[in-house]
Amino acid sequence: MGTEAVLKWDHPEHGLVCGDQVLELADETGLILSLGPWLLRTACEHLRWERDLPLSVNLTANQASDADLVGEVARVLQDTGVSAGRLWLGMPVDALLAPGGEAMDNLKVLAENGVQAVARNFGAVAGDLVCVEDLPLRAVRIARWLVDRDPVPGSPVTHALLELSSLVHLSGTEVIVDGITTEPQADWWRAAGADLGQGAFFV
Q1: Full-model pTM
Q2: Which residues form a coiled coil (predicted)?
């Protein structure tokens, strides 16, 4: 269904550090504002030679709020020849809901230019549904810690997760579940209405 650009760091002491953990470390050290554009450009350059699949790139809160984000994305797409519709940019929900609205403004402009917007870490609080109602989102990505929970019959959290996809679908937005590791987990989320899944189970 698509491909995702993921940062990995082969640390001499801690071994392989992957994905969101690398993003968080780069964000904390300030490296993300140089590393992020490099990742986006490198991924798009590779995508030119692949079949016509979407490319997903996750951003940190600082990237999502960066005043140069829209211009940087436009330059990368122009230089690499990748169409805006193939690029799915993931922005953290807490950044989209933060006072000031820089990330929200960036998302709206990017969406107007054809880039597909995804709200990351979705579902942790009820207010996340505001993003679905107010923003032009292509998809939401369920918060990883919610995916890691074992469903318990009768649990309020389990009941809420079963309803979540239906609520998101009301706005025509898709639901992505990351971190699926087993077949029962995949079956549960499929039954709960998720549209797309990724994780070790599919590798």
Answers
A1: 0.89
A2: none
* Residue 132 CB-density burial (10 A; 0-12 exposed, 13-18 middle, 19+ buried): buried
Q: 10 Å Cβ neighbour count for 155?
A: 12
What's the pLDDT at 84? 94
Instruction: State mean pLDDT over 157-186.
Output: 92
- 129 contacts 99 by C-beta, under 8 angstroms: no
For residue 56, the number of C-alpha atoms closer than 13 Å in the C-beta half-sphere is: 20
Q: What is the pLDDT of residues 14-35, one digit of tens each?
A: 778 777 788 888 888 888 888 8
Provide mean pLDDT across the span 56-72: 93
Among 60, 20, 16, 55, which residue's Cα sits nearest to residue 36? 60
* CA distance to 31, 74, 97, 102, 198, per residue, from 203 (Å): 30, 32, 33, 36, 9
Annotated domain spans of the chain: 3-202
Q: Are strands 87-92 and 196-198 parallel, antiparallel or unpaired?
A: unpaired
The single-letter DSSP state of residue 142 is E
Q: Are 5 and 57 contacting, i.e. CB atoms less than 8 angstroms apart?
A: yes
How many CB atoms sit inside 10 A of residue 67's CB?
9
Q: What is the pLDDT of residues 96-105, one digit of tens each?
A: 988 888 999 9
**Can you tell me the distance from the alpha carbon of 89 to that of 33, in angstroms, rounded to the nearest whole number?**
15
Q: How far apart are CA 190 and CA 151, in angstroms?
A: 13
Query: What percent of the chain lies above the pLDDT cut of 70?
Result: 98
Which CATH number applies to 3-202?
Answer: 3.20.20.450
